[in-house]
Design goal:
- The protein is an alpha/beta fold and 530 residues long.
- It has a single domain (66-289, 310-525), classed as Leucine-rich repeat, LRR (right-handed beta-alpha superhelix) (Alpha-Beta Horseshoe), CATH 3.80.10.
- The protein contains 20 helices and 18 strands.
- The chain has a 16-stranded parallel beta sheet.
- The two termini are 31 Å apart.
Length: 530
């Protein structure tokens, strides 16, 4: 559950959140919609007012809120077992458009009462029942009142212990949800067996923009099943198939209608055990569509790649691509990575822990120069980066939009961090907000000194991590004093990770004085050495 919550959080700057009290009392459609847009990428816990509000108080308020459009009582342990007292009042708020009951410990009686109540709120557009295990096995009781013409636009059932029978029912229900735009079934590992029914239902949801099947027990066969539905989802913007470890090998024989998703902005395939043949087929999938379109039949391997190179721009709306934790693609993704240069809108490229080899990293480095819109670049846990950061020199110089750079556990050496310091010193990476250099234990004190002397130029930096590996402990050098001096000149920094760096007594005193004198809150996370 925590992994999913983290995934849905933006790598960029956290957006301000409106008070949950205001959300509860809101009747304005415009304000409600704005709040929904602001929070759509986060699953943050509401304020204490909502958490501690008893159902009896909620019931007392409902008669006075006939124009209420949003009711969010998620993360409220008081709700479980007492939801019926709220649902009995639903006829008083018939204009309700948003109902969120995530992690409320709903009981079987609760979900049955909810099913009856949904009939009283025909204007409902969003329903979130995530993290309620009793929803599993009882989904028909909740959603059976939905009729054709339902206005539901967003349905979230994350980690609800859905059964295969629930999946089958959902597949039959989907054709009635013509307005559906967001469907999140993540962390329901038993619905893979009913994917045929779900995919059949998806063919009738032509307005769908977000489909999340993260950790749903999908198999190799699932790719082909979903592939048949993709051609009907022309409006799809986000597709998440991540953390389905048995998916690997499934793309080999797929016709990959994925390329038909011309409006796709986010594609997440991290930790899917992608094989070398998968990577080749994903690229050939683009070729297959082009060949059908131009009726070309290249016979040579070179011809196939040339045609593929012409096709990738069809996905020109792609903004986020996550291929991380697919270690088998490390030595086979050179051609795919080299084609990313044709994705002008790409803002986030996450390819950490892919066991990249020298050739694939070189291809990626040459491609990254052309990704002028890149804001998030994650290469962590790829050892080949160490000693070769110079290949990214031009990228780092030209990346005017880069906000997040992660190079954790990349076997960086002193020369790498000196190069990075020189790039920073010359005014590049000025927009960087998060920099992760952790678990690179081979960098000597001279390298850290050079880096800390220049980090002060990153005026927008909010997070810096230079922690050591869990098994390693080292004394801080004189560079720590340079770091403290730099931090004073960084107006937005709030978090500095330096776990397992051992501070001598004199430096501990300097840090204590810094903590007492500073006018803003900066957290030095130096745990692990005491």
């Amino acid at each position: 559950m925590s992994q999913t919550r983290k995934k849905t959080s933006s790598e960029g700057e956290t957006k301000p959140q409106t008070s949950s009290v205001n959300k509860f009392l809101r009747g304005s459609k415009a304000e409600s919609r704005k709040e929904n847009n602001d929070l759509k990428t986060t699953d943050s816990q509401p304020s204490n007012w909502i958490q501690k509000t008893a159902p009896s108080e909620t019931v007392a308020l409902l008669p006075f809120l006939p124009d209420l459009e949003e009711l969010d009582i998620s993360w409220n342990d008081f709700v479980g077992g007492t939801l019926h007292s709220i649902t009995q009042q639903m006829h008083l708020v018939s204009k309700l458009k948003i109902l969120r009951l995530g992690s409320c410990r709903l009981t079987t009686d609760d979900v049955q009462a909810l099913g009856e109540a949904l009939e009283m709120i025909p204007e409902l557009e969003e329903l979130n029942l995530s993290w309620n295990s009793k929803v599993g096995g009882n989904l028909p009781l909740i959603l059976q009142k939905f009729q054709k013409g339902s206005k539901i636009q967003m349905l979230k059932l994350v980690d609800c212990t859905l059964t295969s029978e629930d999946g089958t029912f959902l597949g039959q229900l989907l054709p009635m949800l013509q307005s559906l735009e967001v469907l999140d079934l993540s962390i329901n590992r038993d619905i893979g067996g009913s994917l045929n029914s779900i995919a059949q239902g998806l063919k009738s949801t032509s307005n769908l923009k977000v489909l999340k099947l993260h950790s749903c027990g999908l198999s190799q066969k699932s790719v082909k099943i979903l592939d048949a539905a993709f051609r009907y989802l022309a409006e799809l913007r986000k597709l998440d198939l991540s953390c389905n470890k048995d998916l690997g090998g499934g793309f080999e024989d797929s016709s990959a209608q994925l390329v038909m998703l011309k409006h796709l902005q986010v594609l997440d395939l991290h930790q899917c055990s992608l094989t070398a043949d998968d990577v080749m087929s994903l690229t050939f999938a683009l070729l297959a569509w082009k060949r059908a379109w131009k009726q070309e039949s290249p016979s040579s391997m070179l011809g196939r790649w040339l045609v593929c190179a012409q096709v990738i721009p069809l996905l020109s709306n792609l903004q986020e691509l996550d291929l991380s934790a697919n270690k088998k693609m490390g030595n086979s993704s050179e051609n795919l990575l080299s084609r990313l240069r044709f994705l002008p809108a790409l803002k986030s490229l996450v390819i950490n822990n892919c066991a990249l080899e020298s050739e694939t990293f070189t291809a990626l480095a040459e491609t990254s120069v052309h990704l002028s819109a890149l804001e998030v670049f994650n290469l962590s846990w790829n050892k080949c980066v160490g000693g070769n950061l110079k290949l990214l020199l031009e990228t780092l110089k030209l990346s005017m939009s880069l906000r997040v750079l992660r190079l954790s556990s990349c076997s960086l050496v002193t020369e790498d961090v000196v190069l990075l310091a020189s790039v920073i010193q010359t005014g590049h990476l000025a927009k960087l907000r998060k920099l992760d250099l952790s678990y690179n234990d081979s960098i000597c004190d001279a390298g850290w000194t050079m880096f800390c002397q220049n980090v002060r130029f990153l005026k927008e930096l909010i997070e810096l991590d230079i922690s050591l590996r869990p098994s390693n402990f080292r004394d801080c050098g004189q560079w720590f004093r340079h770091l403290l001096c730099a931090v004073i000149k960084l107006p937005q920094i709030t978090e500095i990770g330096m776990k397992r760096w051992i501070l001598p007594a004199s430096q501990e005193e300097e840090l204590e004085c810094f903590d007492q004198d500073k006018k803003r809150s900066i957290h030095f996370d130096h745990g692990g050495f005491q």
